[in-house]
Amino acid sequence: MIGIYFWKILGIGAAVYIFYDNYKKNRTGLGLILAAITLFFPFFAIFYLNFKSKKPLKNPKKNTELPQSFCPKCGHTNNKNLSICGSCKNMLTL
Ligand SMILES: [Zn+2]
């Protein structure tokens, strides 16, 4: 008997947390759907948290991949792979 109440409380708590988490990101509609799923299937919260913890790793490294060099003649920002300035055609020596 205690087990059923435990899962119900856990499900409600997880549903509130998931809804609030999506509400903060202006995704109220999605939060409402996910909260409803969690309310009926508390195990869904585990999948949600697992998915959430994996997602933010994609963003931080974005501008570090492309090194850039400034043209000494005109100051144009060029891709480091280029040997000639894209703006004034000046030879880029490193
Ligand atoms: Zn240039």
Keywords:
two-stranded antiparallel sheet; 2 strands; binds zinc ion; 3 helices; 50% helix; rod-shaped; single chain; 94 residues; mainly alpha
Model description:
- By secondary structure, this protein is mostly helical.
- Helices cover 50% and strands 6% of the residues.
- The protein has a two-stranded antiparallel ribbon with strand order 1-2.
- A hairpin with a 6-residue loop joins strand 1 (68-70) and strand 2 (77-79).
- Helix 1 runs antiparallel to helix 2.
- The protein is rod-shaped.
- Bound molecules: zinc ion.
- Residues 71, 73-74, 76, 85, 87-88, 90 line the site of zinc ion.
Q: How many individual domains?
A: 2
**Are any ligands bound, and if so which?**
zinc ion
How many E-type strands?
A: 2
Which runs of at least 5 residues are low in confidence (pLDDT < 50)? none
Summarize the helix and strand pattern as letters. Answer: HHHEE
* Beta-strand residue percentage: 5-15%
Q: Strands of the biggest beta sheet: in what spatial order?
A: 1-2
Helix content: 40-55%
Structural class, from secondary structure content? Answer: mainly alpha
Shape: rod-shaped
Per DSSP, the total helix count is 3
Q: Gap between N and C termini, in Å?
A: 74 Å
Rg (CA only): 25 Å
Task: State the oligomer.
Answer: single chain
Question: What is the residue-mean pLDDT, rounded to a whole number?
Answer: 83
What does the main sheet amount to?
Answer: 2 strands, antiparallel
